Amino acid sequence: MEAQKLHPIQEKLLRLAKNRNISALSLREIGELVGDKSAQKIKHHLQQLEKRGLLKIDRVKGTIEKPQEGWIDGFLEHGKRLLQIPIVGVANCGPAEVLADENILGYLRVSNSLIHRQDNAGLFAVRADGFSMNQARVNHKAINDGDYLIVDGDDRVPDEGEVILSVIDGAANVKRFHRDAAHGQVALLSDSSEDFAPIYIGPDDDFFVNGKVIDVIKRAG
User: Fold this and answer.
1) What is the CATH number of the domain that holds 55?
2) Residue 168 contacts residue 202 (beta carbons within 8 Å)
3) Do both 71 and 114 map to the same domain?
4) Whose CB among 60, 180, 190, 200 lies 3.0–4.6 Å from 132's, allowing a Cys bridge?
5) 216 by DSSP, 3-state: which?
6) Residue 39: which H helix or E strand, with range?
7) Degrees, nearest 5: CA angle 165-169-174
8) Whole-number Å distance between alpha carbons of 34 and 30
9) What backbone phi and psi angles, to 5 degrees, belong to 161?
C-alpha cells in the first residue's frame, strides 16, 4: 500500500499555516484563502492534517499549532510523507519467549525520509522487548528495550550476519543470523552488553524467518 500524497487543499492549508496564524480565522475565511468555501470540508482537511502530525488542534483554546517549519518544508518541497506502518506485536530480544502475534495493534507513522522508503509495501513494525541486541547496529542505531523495529516482511532470505525477526515454536525474537553449515544448524546470536547464549536451530525445528530488520525507530523520551 503506497503512502497517500497530501490532498491539494491540505497542501494549501499547510502553506497558509506556515505563513499566517490561521487560529485567528474562521473556517469560512480559511476556505476563501485556499479556494474552498465549505467550512465542513476545511474542518475535515484540518483534521486529516492533524492525524498526519502536521498540525495540532487545541479544541479548548481554539488554536492551531504547527510543527517546526523544516518539518513542513520537507513535506511540501521535497516530497517527504508519512508512512503508516502496521504494528504487529512485540519481539523478544532475549530468549524466544514472547508469542508472535500477527494481529495489527496500531500504526506507526514515520516519515519516509527516516527509513529511506517511498512506500510501506511489505513493511511492519514490532516493539523490542529486552536487551540482548543493545550492541547491534541497524543503520547506525542500537536496538534497545521499547524501540520500534521496522521489518521488511518480503525479504525472508537473510545473508550471513544480518539482523532478523524469526519465529521459534510460535515465539518471536530478534537476533543476528549465522548459518553454521559445518554442523548443519543455524545459530541466532545476541549482540549485547550482557551474556546471552546463542539459540541453535536444527533443520527439523519449528523455525522460520519473518523478515529482515531494516531500521530502528528510537523510543521517545
Assistant:
1) 1.10.10.10
2) no
3) no
4) 190
5) strand
6) helix 39-51
7) 20
8) 6
9) 85, 0
Q: In the chain, pLDDT over 70 holds for what percent of residues? A: 88
What total of structural domains would you count in the chain? 2
Kindly provide the residue ranges of all beta strands, DSSP E only, lying in the chain, ordered along the sequence: 56-58, 63-65, 82-92, 106-111, 123-129, 148-152, 163-168, 171-180, 185-189, 199-201, 207-217
Are residues 94 and 14 located together in one domain of the fold? no
pLDDT at position 1 is: 37
Contacts of 70 (CB under 8 A, 6+ apart): none
* Res. 121: pLDDT tops 90: no
The residue range of the domain holding 212 is 82-217
Helices and strands in the chain: count of H runs, count of E runs: 5, 11
How would DSSP label each residue in 40-60? HHHHHHHHHHHHTTS-EEETT
212: three-class secondary structure by DSSP = strand
Task: Kindly state whether residue 111 falls inside one of the protein's structural domains.
Answer: yes
- Among 15-19, 21-25, 57-61, 132-136, the least confident range: 57-61
Buried b (16+ CB within 10 A) or exposed e, 31-59: beebebeeeeebeebbebbeebebbeeee
Cα four-point dihedral sign 37, 40, 46, 48: negative
Report whether 4 contacts 11 (CB < 8 A).
no
The pLDDT > 90 percentage for the chain reads 48
DSSP one-letter string for 89-105: EEEESSSS-SBP--S--
